Amino acid sequence: ADPGHAGVTGNPLDSGKFKTPTLRNIALTGPYMHDGRFQTLEEVIAHYNSGGVASTTVDPFMKYSTGGLQLSSVQQAQLIAFLHTMTDTSFTSNPEFQDPH
Fold it and tell me: pLDDT tens, 13-62?
């Protein structure tokens, strides 16, 4: 099991805690999830749509009695399209913010 932030702090109360990243430029920041298990946003949405995987570290509010988000294929596509609107191409193409190496 991934210890989460407890691996850094040594505090058992931090077990299963992870930093929540920004959605800015989300389409450019894969792989996704705390352990990089998904390569695409579509895989992430499918994971949550199916209900995820049971774990003691999953927040109780993330456990859906209906077995996932139950988004239709249209709703999933709309969510992906929304996430793509978070991409700032003026930022990503600006040479001032490119790799300095």
Answer: 988 888 888 999 999 999 998 889 999 999 999 998 988 776 676 666 66
Point out which residues pair with 32 in neighbouring strands.
38
Q: What is the model's pTM?
A: 0.70
Count of other CB atoms within 10 angstroms of residue 88: 12
The CATH number assigned to the domain with range 20-94 reads 1.10.760.10
Angle between helices 41-49 and 73-84 (to 10 degrees): 140
What are the structure tokens assigned to 99, written together? 């790799």
Report how far residue 75's alpha carbon sits from residue 13's, in angstroms, rounded to the nearest whole number. 37
The DSSP line for 12-72 is GGGBT-------TTGGGS-SBSTT--BSSHHHHHHHHHTT----TTS-GGG--TTSS----
Q: Are 86 and 24 in contact (CB under 8 A)?
A: yes
